[in-house]
Amino acid sequence: MARKSIAHHTDPIEYHDTMLALSEARAAQWLLRFLNGGEYNNILEDTEGTETVEWLNHWAIDALSRSLDDAEAAFRKAMAAAPTGGVGPKQVA
Question: How far apart (Å, rounded) are the C-alpha atoms in residues 87 and 70?
């Protein structure tokens, strides 16, 4: 019996460097909201837990900054490679 293959629709924009960097930024933002929203209090109530949360906050802030820098660099690279040099709308002949 032959296996049926399922056609997967993938949008190439989802794998663009800019979108990947923005996805990382969203993940860091979510982590910061979680850590600073107090939802973790039942899990990490001791001193070591507080230190872990502080460390995670610093890590997430660094990750957010790095991801936004990566997104900007990827966007600039994509615009520089555009047929119009990234300036103005495309001219259709």
Answer: 21
Q: 56, 35 in Cβ contact below 8 A? A: yes
8 A C-beta contact, residue 90 and residue 84: yes
- Is residue 29 within 8 A of residue 20, CB to CB? The reply is no
CB 47 within 8 A of CB 40: no
36-83 pLDDT, tens digit each: 886 665 566 666 777 888 899 999 999 999 999 999 999 999 999 888
Using an 8 Å Cβ cutoff, are 28 and 67 in contact? yes
Please list, in sequence order, all residues whose beta carbon lies within 8 angstroms of the beta carbon of residue 33, skipping any fewer than 6 positions away.
Answer: none
User: How far apart are the C-alpha atoms of 67 and 63, rounded to whole Å?
Assistant: 6
pLDDT of residue 40: 61
